[in-house]
Amino acid sequence: MTGSTAGAAIAGLGMTELGKVYGRSPRRLAADAVRRAVADAGLSLADLDGLLVSHGTSGSPGVELAAALGLRDLRLLTQMNAFGATAGAMVAYAAMSVLSGAASTVACVFADAPLRPRRSAGSAYQRDAAEWYGYGGMTAALGFRSVNAFYALAARRHMLRYGTTSEQLGAIAVSTRQWAARNPLAQMREPITLADHQNSRWVAEPLHLLDCCLVSNGAVAVVVTGADRARDLAQPPVHLWGWGQGHPGHRRERGSDFGLTTGAAVSGPIAMKMAGVSVDDIDVCQIYDCYTYTVLVSLEDYGFCPKGEGGPFVASGVLGPGGALPTNTGGGQLSGYYMWGMTPLSEAVIQARGHGGDRQVPRNDVILVSGNGGVLDHHSTLIVSPHPKGA
Amino acid sequence: MDIGILRRDGRTDPFFDGAAGGRLVIRRCAACDRWLAPDAGGCPDCGSDDLAWAEASGEAALVTWTVLHGRPADDGTVPPPVRLALVELAEGPWLHARLTDVDPERLREGLPLRAVFRHPPEGESYVLFEPR
């Protein structure tokens, strides 16, 4: 079998109900998302010859999802995990498989169900115990029980070094909510002001509640296939122009860049070079926004503004509706839905297809999709477009 | 934030032996002498996994910090905030730490700190950092 010579494209997008969705296991949610993605593409499950699976905090599903879906004779099946960078990594692996001929039609899925009825969203991502074991247990016992504290340390470091302010982070919360207000899929659509951001309770200073993303149950899947084949399917193809990863391995010692730079500084140039574009060519950004700060530091590392000038850049209004760099146009993870790296990817597919409705951006020729995993430990970047690469 | 009870895990016991005696005991690469955090698995410089335990000075400087606020309870009461930090030991490693006896107005990058130890009635001793 020879691979696609016309490039690879996303042909299908499947999303379950997202948010406070109870009563379905992560595996069931994942299966539903794959079925929807396949149907969206105008394909059937039997057309899949590859499946890439990733999960969130629930620890499920894994490769057993293939059996749950009744898939037979797959040529590609594995579970992948680079945390928030996984979605981009899965799509890249699927694209490389399609280009090499290892597989022809690959579904990539993420599912999670951390929310439970009558339990706070924050507690879904927090460790708690009466007894703690070893040095790592002591660190958790003393307060490092959720990722909030780690990101707060990173955001503070950026503030100390570059003078970034809470109000500048708030500008991201406000512009992202402006987009969410136009997205029927978003969980939080009520407009907010900078004052609302400043008055929202502290979670971990310098991060307010409105600096932090949502927690969602649900699943999202995409189908990757050859661009020539995608052209004949049910949806407008979303062409994969470039991909890259960056894993800086920040050390925990004197001289570390923790909080100041991310793997986007590596993954971005790789993906853009492969795509044959520069940062000036990017029309829209879909950037992993577990926190407002993550957007700011990622934008710097991609080169949309000089290092350290992310604060003034985002406060200029450039990211919101009508701005020069529309970013997180579905409301992101802050206001839309938290499906890890599938949040930015799903909105990129919607925008590339021109299916954004009230939030559709006027220019969607080159879209950057950014994933971030761990505490700024893992980055993936995709460059996608409605147009075939090189056309 | 209730700390709970600390137990040994068989991998970092020398740290707790040190804490019980008021000493900050961390890892040190036997091959290249580099100091590392107590939970380091190997030396990132020379690749050796032969890490010894050694007593650090306990002197540190503040790198960055956060004030962690608990979620308000249904009756509106709020748990007391906790000051958490990355501290840079004089020997070089960074530790995720809790600060104590610190005036919030004095928090700044580079603030000199020292390790202090707490010995709860049950479970292992632990380390906090305070201004020096």
Automatic annotation (TrEMBL), chain A:
The chain crosses the membrane at residues 82-112, 132-154. It comes from Actinomadura rubrobrunea. It comes from the Bacteria. One of its GO terms (molecular function) is acyltransferase activity, transferring groups other than amino-acyl groups. Keywords: Membrane, Transmembrane, Transmembrane helix. The keyword Membrane applies. The keyword Membrane applies. This is Thiolase. Residues 253-385 form the Thiolase C-terminal domain. Pfam families: Thiolase_C_1.
From TrEMBL, chain B:
InterPro entries: ChsH2_C, ChsH2_Znr, NA-bd_OB-fold, Thioester_dehydratase-like. Residues 16-51 form the ChsH2 rubredoxin-like zinc ribbon domain. Residues 53-118 form the ChsH2 C-terminal OB-fold domain. It comes from the Bacteria. It holds the Pfam family OB_ChsH2_C. Coiled coil: none annotated. This is DNA-binding protein. It comes from Actinomadura rubrobrunea.
